[in-house]
Amino acid sequence: MKLLPILTMLFFMLSNLPSLWSQADISFFEPLQINEIRLKTQSTNWQYLLDSFHLNDDSFLTADLEYQIGANAKKYELKNVGFRYQSYRGFTPGDKFNALEIKINHKVSNQNIEKHQSLQLSQALRDPSILREVLGYSIWRTFAPAPRANFAKVFVNEQFYGLMVNVEPIDEAFLTSYFGSSKGTLYKSNANVETLPSTGCKKNIFGTLLEDASSNCYQDHFVNYTNKDWDNLFQLSKLLNQQPGKIAQMLDVDQTLWMLALNNTMVNLYSYSGLGSPNYYLYQDEKISFTRLWEV
């Protein structure tokens, strides 16, 4: 994708986003509602396999899925979904309770639950109350974009796995609901302070948006979910570092300030505000001529 005359870069944090959804969709993430998820796989040693997949190639294990929305609402029964442990630093090998990702369209391309093609289930790491993510997202959505979240009881092969936080995934349905389109360019900071830079790239840049040597260098610490064009990200960091007075041409400054303020208020350090600036998204919305900042 070529750089637009006025670039729209949208920053956001995977903990928050506004809700412009139909009533049918709202029930899926009703905060006071506890959904029920049942996975049935033919693999009796599924935990060992998920450990192995996570440490080697992040493959999915195939299962059938039953998803009950609330106590009396609609039930979905889907075949051949995929599930695995989420790829983030909260994973513990051999642990009986890791965060889960369920890929609904794992083997059936058009399979979805209310337009979502995946489920993101958090184990509420270091939160005995299990309430902080749901409350945090709710507060965040008052001021800036953020995912919705509620709770789900999860069973695997009829055994109770745990009560988990059901977080709205950042996918086409999410982007379309907020921006009216999912055709923009979506990046995520996947920064790792232990990763050495590629040849010719600067040290200690990570996900900070400090200007690097070239657009290719950003591939060390970002994921591009849309295409292989990295020039937009390079141009944003170049303008931010060389001509900060003009940054409003590319970045929604108001939303960026809200994101920074909320990070500080909630002490959210696994974010743009933390070491190396990990775990946040940038979205270039082609329909809006300014940029917003969010985190996840």
Summarize the structure in words:
There is one protein chain. This protein is of the alpha+beta class. The protein has 6 helices and 11 strands. The chain has a 7-stranded mixed beta barrel with strand order 2-3-4-5-6-8-7. Strands 1-11-9-10 form a 4-stranded antiparallel sheet. It starts with 9 loop residues before the first strand and ends in a 12-residue tail after the last strand. The model is unreliable at 1-26 and 289-293 (pLDDT under 50).
- The portion of residues forming beta strands comes to 15-25%
Strand arrangement, major sheet: 2-3-4-5-6-8-7
| Helix vs. strand class | alpha+beta
User: Secondary-structure element sequence?
Assistant: EHEHEEEEHEEHEEHHE
Alpha-carbon distance between the two ends = 24 Å
Number of helices: 6
Major β-sheet, in short? Answer: 7 strands, mixed, barrel
Characteristics:
7-stranded mixed barrel; 2 domains; 296 residues; 4-stranded antiparallel sheet; 23% strand; 6 helices; single chain
List the helices and strands and how they pair.
Blueprint: E1 10-13, H1 23-26, E2 34-40, H2 46-56, E3 61-68, E4 75-85, E5 100-103, E6 118-122, H3 132-140, E7 149-156, E8 159-167, H4 172-179, E9 185-189, E10 222-224, H5 231-242, H6 253-266, E11 280-284
Parallel strand pairs: 2-7
Antiparallel strand pairs: 1-11, 2-3, 3-4, 4-5, 5-6, 6-8, 7-8, 9-10, 9-11
